[in-house]
Design brief:
Blueprint (H helix, E strand, L loop, with lengths): L1 H4 L4 E9 H14 L3 E3 L13 H23 L16 H49 L3 H13 L29 E8 L3 H11 L5 E6 L14 E8 L2 H13 L3 E3 L5 H37 L2 H18 L3 E2 L5 E9 L3 H14 L7 E4 L16 H11 L10 H16 L2 H16 L1 H7 L4 H8 L1 H18 L20 H9 L9 H4 L21 H35 L2 H32 L5 E3 L2 E3 L8 H9 L31 H32 L16 H25 L2 H26 L2 H43 L16 H9 L3
Antiparallel strand pairs: 1-8, 1-9, 2-8, 3-5, 3-6, 4-5, 7-8, 10-11
Helix pairs in contact: 2-9, 2-10, 3-4, 3-8, 3-9, 4-8, 6-7, 11-12, 12-16, 12-24, 12-25, 13-16, 13-25, 19-20, 19-23, 19-24, 20-22, 20-23, 22-23, 24-25
Membrane topology: Multi-pass membrane protein
Protein name: V-type proton ATPase subunit a
Function: Essential component of the vacuolar proton pump (V-ATPase), a multimeric enzyme that catalyzes the translocation of protons across the membranes. Required for assembly and activity of the V-ATPase.
Length: about 850
């Protein structure tokens, strides 16, 4: 609790390391993880530092490791898990590791290049086989006669098709004198299917119709090893003459066609196809062997890649820290500066001795505390429970060194403030069970190393959600709200005073309403409902009026209580700093201003709850006739500022039989109320100039007499009365106006509680109530399906959306309304050199 209440005492130390032991000593401090090094070479570029070559080598090794991991992921080979506590490799081992990784990468690069060439050749030969097969089929279908006919028609001035999918019968080729088929030449190959139509049109225009094109899509389903990623088609172009051959080849080159040499003799084509199949089979065998060899390399590497990655990460971080250190003129010693918790200095020294022994060095490292004007970093010892709440505080700002940390109180106040707005026991149970699942299975979850940011956010705040669920159940019991319904646990304190005939007559008249007279319906003997709101209010038509009034006043009481507690925490800070000025002219005026207006209002609320009931009686010596005369606190507060005061008492001459004053709720309800409120208002008004002027004027007086004076809002700044005055004016105005605006801001507790309750009631009446009203066999099925809809809507809207809304409002109330009273949050976070923290950041789990 001590470290959580205030940050740890920090010591600034100077460190002298023998050059031969520096690597091992820094590595041990990385395992220790509580030393924050200062970069003494900040003005130097990374290339001019002593260990630049080693850092560059580490970067190269990181790149190699990432490339190897990419190869493993491509082949779906899993890595072997490794113990995260493996030691940092020695410098000699590090050099050998670099050589080993370089060899593995070179080997994998050569294998990949060979495979790339083999795959390309395999696909090329496979495509040649398909083209020859398609061409053989086309040539066997009397295509030459059709091509000769088409070319002859063009030469005789008739239009000829570029190609047609319809067969042309031989009897149709007779009226025109055809070219001899032996004159025809052809080129065949493969082209992307998406370019076939454009290719054919261009051939038609380039040759003026004196070429005939046929194409067929290539079926690549038989190529199970490396199927083509792009759909391909085989084509054959018939033409006459060398000039047309040249033009056709030019078009083929422009479309990046794969030209396949095809013998005109059918027997030669069959022989060529046989040779191609043999070559493809041989290439497949070579490819299988190459893949098998590559997999052997990758499987062997997968057993060590995680270890290598971790070792490279640690070595990189060690050399990065070594680059922070200065080298003495003799080059035999490295000098560094670091921050460490004061109570850990002996542990730091013991880790340095371990590093010295590992390096077999006879010269001992020297760690000596030194004085510095630098601001110490803020460090709180945390565990898995307190870390989530500390993160909430740190998101607003890091605590100043030795400043009171709001986290201990946030542990209770944050889930409680959230629960006031959430306030439903049923939804609180859902939240509690969700958080319990995270807590129970946290070891499995951490072992799985899930990197999803949203999931990790919920998991990191599992204990926050756990307490939010517990407090939501508690406030839900106070509100007596369980999925928008009340639970009659102890039995209502109200009873029905009407007989059945009266009730039936009122039910017939839709406009009539039944009221419960207190004298007859309320059970005075047993008193009020033991815990929470009486369940009878769930049936009352004025339920919202009652609950709104209760929650509104409760919000004001809780808000002002939390703000007052924040002001008292500022007193603890002033006492720690031994600042008498802040105590006398900041704390006391702030407390008086808050007390004279807002704490006074809270006292009035409590007194009204206790003394002003529905029954007549005497209150503070004044006869109180009925609830109509219960004082209006809001109008009373306005009248207090306007110095308006009514008559004392509620009836004339304080006589129970006397006439009740008009607007009796605005009269003075205790003796001397007007005088008391005037005095309180004067004190509150005087407190403002005291906060604004007294402290700066005293500081100016001290400065003129040569007495040490703080700059007021900085560290070791020269005194400037203008700056101090502006700073004081800002804080005075912020506090005075903030007390008013922050009090109003706490009304969000009531507003969000109302919104949650109304949404819950809407879901119940508009969804689940429909299913509960159904009867028969259909009703059973209806209840089943509608219940699932009700559950999904409840979790999505009321637990997640409303929960997130209440969470954000609770953040606002803590950051602005509570912490602004005492918390500066302008400190520097302690960022120690720690292998554990570096590993988490690398894995994306920080």
């Amino acid at each position: 609790m001590g470290s959580l209440y205030r940050s740890e005492l920090m010591t600034f130390c100077e460190l002298y390391l023998p050059s031969e032991a520096a690597y091992n000593c820094i590595a041990e401090l990385g395992e220790f993880g509580l030393c924050q090094f200062k970069d003494l070479n900040e003005s130097f570029s990374s290339y001019s530092r002593k260990f630049h070559k080693e850092v560059t080598m580490c970067s190269e090794m990181e790149r190699i490791v990432e490339n190897i991991k990419t190869c493993l992921n491509e082949e779906h080979i899993k890595f072997r898990d490794v113990d995260r506590d493996i030691p940092v490799p020695e410098q000699k081992e590090f050099s050998n590791m670099h050589t080993k990784l370089t060899l593995i990468q070179n080997e994998l690069t050569q294998v990949n290049e060979s495979m790339s060439v083999l795959k390309k050749n395999y696909n090329k030969l496979n495509e040649c086989k398909h083209v020859l097969s398609k061409v053989t089929g086309i040539l066997d279908s009397n295509i030459k006669a059709i091509a000769s006919k088409s070319i002859s028609e063009v030469e005789h001035g008739h239009a000829g098709p570029v190609y047609t999918s319809d067969d042309i019968h031989p009897e149709e080729i007779s009226t025109i004198k055809d070219r001899d088929e032996s004159e025809l030449s052809f080129i065949c190959g493969a082209i992307n299917s998406s370019k076939v139509i454009t290719f054919e049109k261009l051939i038609w225009r380039m040759t003026r119709g004196k070429a005939y094109v046929r194409s067929q899509p290539i079926d690549d389903e038989g190529n199970t090893l490396y199927p083509s990623e792009v759909s391909r088609s085989a084509f054959i172009v018939f033409f006459i003459g060398k000039q047309l051959k040249y033009k056709v080849k030019k078009v083929c080159d422009a479309f990046h066609c794969h030209i396949v040499e095809s013998p005109e003799n059918p027997n030669q084509r069959r022989i060529t196809l046989g040779k191609l199949e043999t070559q493809i089979s041989d290439l497949a065998v070579v490819l299988d062997k190459t893949i098998e060899y590559k997999n052997r390399i990758l499987f062997g590497t997968s057993q060590h890649i995680s270890q290598w990655e971790l070792e490279v990460l640690k070595v990189t971080s060690v050399y990065t820290i070594l680059n922070y250190l200065n080298v003495d003129v003799t080059h035999k010693c490295l000098i560094g500066e670091l921050w460490t918790p004061t109570n850990e200095i002996e542990n730091v020294k013991s880790y340095l001795r371990i590093g010295q022994k590992k390096a077999d060095c006879t010269v001992q490292p020297i760690l000596s505390p030194i004085h510095t004007h630098d601001i110490p970093p803020t460090y709180h010892k945390l565990n898995k429970f307190t870390r989530g709440f500390q993160n909430i505080v740190d998101s607003y700002g890091i605590a100043d060194y030795r400043e009171i940390n709001p986290a201990p109180w946030t542990i209770i106040s944050f889930p409680f403030i959230f629960a006031i707005m959430f306030g439903d026991s049923g939804h609180g149970i859902i939240m509690l069970l969700s958080a319990l699942a995270f807590v129970v299975f946290e070891r499995k979850i951490e072992a799985s190393k899930i990197k999803d940011e949203i999931f990790n956010t919920f998991y990191g705040g599992r204990y926050v959600v756990l307490l939010m669920g517990c407090f939501s159940i508690y406030t839900g019991l106070i509100y007596n709200d369980f999925y928008s319904k009340s639970i009659n646990i102890f039995g209502s304190s109200w009873k029905n005073p009407y007989n059945q005939s009266i009730i039936i007559s009122r039910l017939i008249d839709d406009t009539a309403q039944l009221t419960l007279p207190v004298e007859q319906a309320y059970d005075d003997k047993n008193g009020p409902y033991p815990f929470g709101v009486d369940p009878i209010w769930n049936l009352a038509s004025n339920k919202l009026t009652f609950l709104n009034a209760m929650k509104m006043k409760m919000s004001i009481l809780i808000g002002i209580s939390q703000m007052t507690f924040g002001v008292f925490l500022s007193l603890v800070n002033y006492i720690h700093k031994r600042s008498i000025l802040d105590f006398l002219f900041m704390f006391i005026p702030q407390l008086l201003f808050l007390s004279c207006i807002f704490i006074y209002l809270c006292i009035e609320v409590i007194i009204k709850w206790i003394f002003f009931s529905v029954k007549p009686g005497y209150v503070f010596g004044q006869f109180y006739p009925s609830s109509n005369c219960a004082p209006s606190l809001l109008i009373g507060l306005i009248n207090m500022f306007m110095l308006k005061h009514g008559e004392e008492g509620f009836v004339e001459h304080n006589d129970p039989k006397g006439k009740v004053f008009d607007q009796c709720y605005l009269q003075q309800w205790y003796p001397g109320q007007g005088t008391t409120e005037t005095i309180l208002l004067i004190i509150a008004v005087i407190s403002i100039p005291v906060m604004l002027l007294v402290k700066p004027l005293i500081q100016l007086w001290m400065h003129k007499r040569g007495m040490p004076v703080s700059g007021g809002h900085g560290h070791d700044e020269e005194f400037s009365f203008g700056d101090v005055m502006v700073y004081q004016a800002i804080h005075t105005i912020e506090y005075a106006l903030g007390c008013i605006s922050h009090t109003a801001s706490y009304l969000r507790l009531w507003a969000l509680s109302l919104a949650h309750a109304q949404l819950s009631e809407v879901l119940w009446s508009m969804v689940l109530h429909i299913a509960l009203s159904m009867s028969g066999y259909g009703g059973s099925a209806g209840i089943y399906f509608i219940f699932w809809a009700f559950s999904i809507l409840s979790i999505a809207i009321l637990v997640l959306m409303e929960g997130l809304s209440a969470f954000l409002h609770a953040l606002r109330l803590h950051w602005v309304e509570f912490q602004s009273k005492f918390y500066l949050g302008t400190g520097i976070a302690f960022e120690p050199f720690s292998f554990v923290a570096i590993q988490k950041a690398k894995d994306g789990l920080d």
